């Protein structure tokens, strides 16, 4: 959980009001919070003292707690008083409709929930190619329909999900994998252990992600391994989602053009997503995950943050996801919960 400090828009009493409106004691709320967190793969302890501290403003809930509260109370962060709403959240009901039990219309209800979730997190001000972005969203929804109805396999797609450290790119890529059934590959999961051993063998720091040794000698190999693994899937007709920063790659139009042409020759479409986030939220998540590879970033935060462009997405992007203040990941959580209700 985060230490207490001034948070714009934080209204702790709203959390208590939601709990009481659900008729829950602190103990009962803690039990239910642990249950919903376990389903969502979130790390929360949810004991009596922690919930009491959140509701009384003594402790600001960390990112996994906030996500779990949103799922438990079927509400968004602004509605629970964690923060002020983004412009796109200021009007109307902020929660997604949850489909009822399985019925003849359940598949289309689920498709509608996915469509609304993707539309709500799309940052229209950053779209470089709206047509391709809309086509990608439609394809994700159709992938769900195909899985639900045992339909035919569609066109093979390679999706690159990029963003800065702590932006939520991996979580969003995993969400796309959850609902589409496409293969999901994360660069860190695929290469981190090899990267650490390689850096040690070269006389470097295993957690180095900023020196010339890493950037010039190791980083290119990481991306080569990631793309090779993706190509194995694509050659089998398996649509694949890749999660990695892709910062240099997406700002290099020649790199993206070469990749697109190679894939097109194999009948594979390429779609690029950029997960946009604010600096403070990225730092909060980096601190929360407490990964050794982030030590330099946190120790030199001002220097690191000065290199980030949080105002615009790279030029090759088809769809920008607005995850400022964690808004997109919260919607993704609610969409997952909606789908669980359909297939339960």
Automatic annotation (TrEMBL):
Keywords tagged on the record: Kinase, Transferase
Region annotation (Disordered) ranges: 1-21
GO molecular function: kinase activity
Gene3D superfamilies: P-loop containing nucleotide triphosphate hydrolases
Keyword Ligase attributed: no
Protein name (record): Putative kinase
The organism's place on the tree of life at top rank: Bacteria
UniProt cross-references to SUPFAM superfamilies, sorted A to Z: P-loop containing nucleoside triphosphate hydrolases
Pfam families in the cross-refs: AAA_33
Signal peptide span: none
């Amino acid at each position: 959980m985060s230490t207490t400090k001034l948070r714009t828009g934080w209204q702790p009493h709203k959390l208590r009001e939601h709990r009481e409106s659900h008729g829950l004691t602190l103990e009962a709320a803690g039990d239910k919070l642990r249950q919903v967190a376990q389903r969502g793969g979130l790390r929360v302890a949810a004991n009596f003292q922690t919930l009491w501290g959140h509701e009384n403003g003594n402790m600001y809930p960390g990112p996994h707690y906030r996500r779990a509260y949103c799922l438990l109370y079927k509400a968004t962060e602004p509605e629970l008083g964690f923060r002020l709403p983004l412009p796109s959240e200021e009007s109307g009901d902020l929660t997604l409709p949850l489909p009822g039990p399985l019925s003849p219309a359940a598949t289309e209800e689920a498709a509608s929930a996915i469509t609304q979730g993707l539309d709500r997190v799309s940052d229209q001000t950053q779209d470089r190619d709206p047509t391709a972005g809309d086509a990608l969203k439609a394809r994700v929804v159709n992938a769900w329909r195909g899985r639900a109805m045992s339909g035919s396999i569609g066109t093979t797609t390679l999706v690159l999900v990029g963003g800065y450290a702590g932006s939520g790119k991996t979580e969003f890529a995993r969400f796309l994998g959850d609902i589409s059934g496409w293969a999901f590959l994360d660069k860190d999961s695929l290469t981190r252990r090899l990267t650490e051993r390689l850096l040690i063998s070269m006389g470097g720091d295993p957690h180095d992600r900023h020196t010339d040794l890493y950037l010039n000698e190791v980083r290119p190999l990481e991306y080569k391994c990631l793309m090779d693994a993706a190509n194995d899937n694509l050659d089998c007709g398996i649509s694949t989602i890749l999660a990695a920063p892709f910062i240099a790659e997406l700002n290099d139009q020649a790199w993206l053009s070469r990749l697109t042409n190679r894939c097109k020759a194999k009948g594979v479409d390429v779609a690029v997503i950029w997960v946009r986030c604010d600096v403070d939220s990225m730092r909060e998540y980096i601190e929360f995950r407490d990964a050794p590879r982030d030590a330099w970033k946190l120790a030199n935060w001002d220097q690191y943050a000065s290199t980030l462009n949080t105002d615009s997405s790279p030029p090759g992007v088809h769809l920008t996801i607005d995850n400022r203040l964690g808004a997109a990941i919260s919607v993704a959580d609610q969409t997952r919960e909606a789908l669980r209700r359909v297939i339960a």
